Amino acid sequence: MTTNNYLFTSESVSEGHPDKVSDRISDMVVDTYLSRDPVSRVACETLTTTNRVVLAGETRGPKINNDELINKIRDCIKDIGYDQKGFSWKNAKIENYLHEQSSDIAMGVDSKDNKDEGAGDQGLMFGYACNETEELMPAPIHYSHKILRLMAEDRKKGNLKGIEPDNKSQVTMLYQNNKPVKVTSVVISTQHSKDLNQNQVKELVIPYINKSIPSHFLESLDPKEIYINPTGQFIIGGPDGDTGLTGRKIIVDTYGGSAPHGGGAFSGKDPTKVDRSAAYAARYLAKNIVSAGVSEKCLIQLAYAIGVSKPLSIFVKLADEDEAKVRKTMEIIEKNFDLSPRGIREMLKLNNPIYQITSAYGHFGRKPTNKGEFTWEKTDKLDLFKL
After folding, report:
1. 90 vs 25, 51, 87, 232, 300, CA distance in Å?
2. Inter-residue contact 206 to 228 (CB < 8 Å)
3. DSSP codes, 202-222
4. What is the pLDDT of residue 103?
5. Whole-structure pTM value
6. According to the model, what pLDDT value does residue 117 have?
7. Which residues, including other chains, have CB under 8 Å from residue 79's CB and lie 6 or more apart?
8. Residue 105 in contact with residue 259, Cβ under 8 Å?
9. What is the rounded distance in angstroms from the CA atom of residue 270 to the CA atom of residue 277?
10. How far is CA 51 from the centre of its chain?
């Protein structure tokens, strides 16, 4: 095997995974504040466990009635599909420990005296795009997400009876000359009702592999390399089976390990936090660069310091590593894009309540909606990058 020929694996987790339940609730809190005041500040962490939800974090903005938040949390749990003995939207105990944002943090990031606002924290953020799929996402993470998303859609429609909300998927692909050529294994672990045995679970779940992955990638897949609930029954799941926390699925949320990650989570953070907004901007740049045909792959890194508006550095890596092309691409970015926190928010219209939908099945590779969601997935700047 050379470095151009290898196996690569990515995983996804469903909206019913305990960490994703936590992400969903945290992003609901962000949306609730932004819907009342688009300049609200939110940093919300959520813990979920057996019939219990705990909110903690900092906010600045409108006063939100505690009962309203609790009702919205129950709506999230209900929509995901949890009405189980160990975790139910009806009777889970919910505790809210959100409090006012630190004045020290506010002082560092607010604009004043005609000075542009600074980044909400230091850090580095990455964006990535490649031409492995129509969505310009790495193939393993794209198909891992799709399997679970289609399962969830059918479960909610009543077309996948006996399958419960907590699921995980994993797709391994063989790359030759750095391009995916076939799937070599698929793993799906899914919570199910006590009325189903494992053969019945397999019969229900395996068709979603064929629905999600193009047939030419599956032609030589050995049936023995399809693993459905490899440890056996999976009846106790969700927050009852494993504690969930906001921000623990950052690789699932991004590129499945195909690109670096700066370490900052997205969910529960308003768009002044560059952990979130600058990662979206970096994806926006990378996707438009690949869409323009500049490169088959593009990696962007942005770095920030708390209280400083401009990025400390911008890094561009293209597949062919053509230095002249990289310099030209950098010039285009620096001339045409305001990558300050305010500039990013205005460019991508991030001060809207658009985040709850991002909490499962990836923040990238999604279709922009008429509600203003996933603006960073648009390819409306590709003409700028045509060299």
Report:
1. 15, 10, 9, 29, 44
2. yes
3. HHHHTHHHHHHS-HHHHTT--
4. 54
5. 0.95
6. 75
7. none
8. no
9. 8
10. 25
Q: What are phi and psi of 112, to 5 degrees?
A: -160, 155
**What's at 118, amino acid-wise?**
G
For the residues of 151-192, what is the DSSP string, one character each?
Answer: HHHHHHHTSSTTEEEEEEEEEEEEEETTEEEEEEEEEEEEEE
**Cβ-contact 18, 179 below 8 angstroms:** no
pLDDT at 321: 86
Contact (Cβ atoms closer than 8 angstroms) between residue 81 and residue 74? no
pLDDT means per 10 residues, the chain with 387 residues, are 84 98 98 97 97 97 95 98 97 96 58 61 93 98 98 97 98 97 98 97 98 97 97 95 97 98 96 96 98 97 92 95 94 97 97 98 97 97 91
- Token pair for residue 269? 């953070």
Distance CA 134, CA 29 (A): 32
C-alpha to C-alpha distance for 281 and 125, rounded to whole angstroms: 9
What the block records as the tokens of 142 is 């794209």
The SS3 call for residue 229 is coil
Q: How far apart are CA 168 and CA 188, in angstroms?
A: 6
CA nearest to 149, candidates 328, 314, 12, 354: 12
CA atoms of 289 and 331, how far apart (whole Å): 13
What gap in Å lies between CA 138 and CA 178, rounded to an integer? 11
DSSP 277: H
Specify the DSSP element, H or E, that contains 82.
none
pLDDT at 369: 95
Query: What is the distance between the alpha carbons of residues 56 and 168, in angstroms, rounded to a whole number?
Result: 27
For the record, the structure tokens of 288 come out as: 């438009």
Q: What angle (nearest 5°) sits at the alpha carbon of residue 364, between those of residues 29 and 345?
A: 60
Residues facing residue 2 across a β-bridge: none
Distance CA 14, CA 186 (A): 16
Closest CA to 251 of 111, 145, 382: 145
Q: Write a three-state SS string for 287-354.
A: HHHHHCCCCCEEEEEEEECECCCCCCEEEEEECCCCHHHHHHHHHHHHHHCCCCHHHHHHHHCCCCCC
